[in-house]
Design a protein that fits this description.
The chain contains eleven helices and five strands, in the order ααββααβααββααααα. Strand 4 and strand 5 form a beta hairpin.
Length: 255
């Protein structure tokens, strides 16, 4: 575990954090993971899917319907993660089904999961840093493993897995993600950072060496890219997504 924690601490980007987590989880029989994180949660949704950070090594036949078609919104373990913090065996789904507590939509998702051999596993719901944020990790067991097998693994190694997953989550949430659907250009990031520092368009123009009209153009494009109406909202959203005010982390070689 210590070697994995060292890799996570030194990882310069989300991709390397994710790769370390995949390798670690696979040691315990979890060969398919799905991680989601948003800072734009509302009372009735997880916000715009374009603003969510999604990482997964599930195949596209499962992932596209689950995420792009919105099946995730009715996933039983997604409901659990939205309402709880900690780790939960997927046996909870069986208990809910037996008690007649699954909605028709959740039952449909359950049938979809079974068709894709997503039948045994564990879900981790991370502590919220704000009322608008939510992060969770679904760990799907290797095909052929039962929920009894998974529960036995968790009994022996769950504490270790939970620690590594939480460290990975904290690291991911602090890093910019190259795959974001709303990625700012270098110039858009620059002008938003100066706005965040309290500079006017005229100030930024003098600093950057362009005209105020050009600065306004970059600000407008940044607002459009981020899907917001005001520059203040753009600064806030870009900051939440770690696209601005982010230090350049040097790549650290591991001997």
């Amino acid at each position: 575990m210590m070697a994995t924690l060292e890799h996570l601490a030194q990882a310069p980007d989300v991709e390397q954090v994710w790769n370390s987590l995949l390798i670690f989880a696979d040691r315990f029989g979890f060969d398919r993971l799905i991680y989601g994180f948003t800072r734009f949660r509302t009372a009735n949704s997880f916000g715009d899917p374009a603003d969510m950070l999604l990482l997964s090594n599930h195949d596209s036949a499962f992932l596209n319907p689950f995420m792009k078609d919105g099946l995730y919104f009715h996933g039983p373990m997604v409901r659990w993660a939205a309402e709880n913090t900690g780790a939960c065996s997927w046996r909870w789904i069986q208990d809910q089904a037996t008690a007649g507590r699954l909605t028709p939509e959740e039952q449909s998702v359950l049938r979809f999961n079974r068709a894709h051999d997503v039948t045994a596993g564990y879900t981790i719901s991370f502590p919220n840093v704000s009322v608008r944020s939510k992060g969770a990790l679904g760990l799907t067991a290797r095909r052929g493993l039962t929920q009894d097998d998974v529960d036995a693994v968790w009994e022996a190694h769950g504490r270790e897995i939970l620690v590594v997953a939480n460290v990975a989550h904290l690291k991911i949430s602090s890093l910019p993600y190259a795959g974001t659907a709303r990625k700012l250009t270098k110039r858009q990031r620059e002008v938003l950072e100066w706005v965040g520092d309290g500079k006017t368009a005229q100030d930024i123009a003098a600093i950057v060496g362009v005209s105020p009209a050009t600065v306004e153009k970059h600000l407008r494009l940044a607002r459009e890219t981020l899907g917001v109406e005001t520059t203040a909202q753009a600064v806030l959203k870009a900051s939440f997504q770690n696209q601005i005010f982010t230090p350049q982390i040097p790549k650290i070689g591991v001997k």
